[in-house]
Amino acid sequence: MFKFIPERIIKGWPAHINVAMDDGRSKSFPVTLDLKMLPSSEYRALAARGDEMIFPEIVKGWSGIHDEAGTALPFTEDNLRHLTNHPGFAQAVMRAYLRASSGEAARKN
């Protein structure tokens, strides 16, 4: 039975942050994201205004993200604002959100 829940946060959704490396290589870093599912109309309106507007509404937590020293980076508004401008993070969030919102199962490694 499908149950309509107006506000849902999906915790621990798997994602991968892909980072370009030297010599044309890339590396994928697994992370998990806590994502708030928005009504479709709200998602479209915020998405049209850019990542800076939508990410604070949909990203509600994470794990697997670290600073340069290797220390776990806590989820804060300031850290989210900085990561929003990182292309690999931005793409990982959007891929994860679209998969989660469509009901597509998380992909195994």
Summarize the structure in words.
The protein is an alpha+beta fold. Helices cover 38% and strands 28% of the residues. α2 packs across α3 (77-84).
What's the arrangement of secondary structure elements?
Layout: E1 8-20, E2 26-37, H1 40-48, H2 51-58, E3 59-63, H3 77-84, H4 87-102
Antiparallel strand pairs: 1-2, 2-3
Features:
4 helices, alpha+beta, 3 strands, 109 residues, 38% helix
Task: Tell me briefly what this model is.
This protein has 109 residues and is an alpha+beta fold. 38% of the residues lie in helices and 28% in strands. The chain has helices spanning 40-48, 51-58, 77-84, 87-102, and strands spanning 8-20, 26-37, 59-63.
The CA-CA distance between the termini, in Å, is 30 Å
Question: Secondary-structure element order, as H and E?
Answer: EEHHEHH
**What is the global morphology?**
globular
Strand order of the largest sheet: 1-2-3
- In the predicted model, the low-confidence regions spanning at least 5 consecutive residues are none
Provide a count of the helices.
Answer: 4
Strand content: 25-35%
List how many beta strands DSSP finds: 3
Helix percent reads 25-40%
* Major sheet description: 3 strands, antiparallel
Which structural class do you get from the secondary structure elements? alpha+beta
Q: Look at the structure and give the mean pLDDT.
A: 92
Cα-based radius of gyration, to the nearest Å: 14 Å
